[in-house]
Amino acid sequence: MRTPIIAGNWKMNTTLPEARSLxxxxxxxxxxxxxxxxxxCPPFISLALARExxxxxxxxxxxxxxxxxxxGAYTGEISPSMLSGLCEYVILGHSERRGYFGEDDKLVNKxxxxxxxxxxxxxxxxxxxxxxxDAGQTEExxxxxxxxxxxxxxxxxxxxxxxxxxxxxxxxxxxxxxEANRVSRLIRGLVAELYGDTVAGELRIQYGGSVTKANIAxxxxxPEIDGALVGGASxxxxxxxxxxxxxxxxxxx
Length: 253
Prior knowledge:
Blueprint: E1 5-9, H1 16-29, E2 37-41, H2 47-54, E3 59-63, H3 80-83, E4 89-92, H4 95-101, H5 105-117, E5 121-126, H6 130-134, H7 138-149, E6 160-163, H8 177-195, H9 197-202, E7 204-208, H10 216-220, E8 227-230, H11 237-251
Parallel strand pairs: 1-2, 1-8, 2-3, 3-4, 4-5, 5-6, 6-7, 7-8
Helix pairs in contact: 1-2, 1-11, 5-7, 7-8
């Protein structure tokens, strides 16, 4: 059985005091919920604070991005060596990084390799834009992003793949559970081709894109979906906790 994983991507939200308040709330509301791996991904400025506040809890910590070089003259960037030992997960290839900052599959692949080499667990995001979906290119786009994102990797320790259709992120228009499960099945099949059935069977696949407490059950009930990458709803302790509680109940672990 794959352990479900729910990760909260706070994006560019929360000051230090706001991060402290939210984490303190989550410590209370998530206490006692078992059978789900819980991850929060605050902004870089809050990672050290979050690590301190999460000590003694089962809530894990992730970063929202990183560069692939260990150190150097890369003003404004964060390296894998800076994150190693500070957090466990790192989100890579998010559609907002691809869309707003021009990150392509080649760059994402370099980041995935660097993360793994420093003992970080990548949450690799893939997904099609609205025009690609309307043109019937979902499978083509996702296949390319998975293959290129994992190119020349010998193994996938701790890797999570998040299927996040770009047209569903922050729009209030999520995919259907059936649609998300179909693409997740495609992703698992691609990983099986590349790394074998055992690795594919252990791979955890999340759905992301307008996930809320009202619709999480539709996604988490699907056989190929093992969790969610949650955006806006992760900024509300009660809502994020409900998403995790429902996941624990439905997956029954």
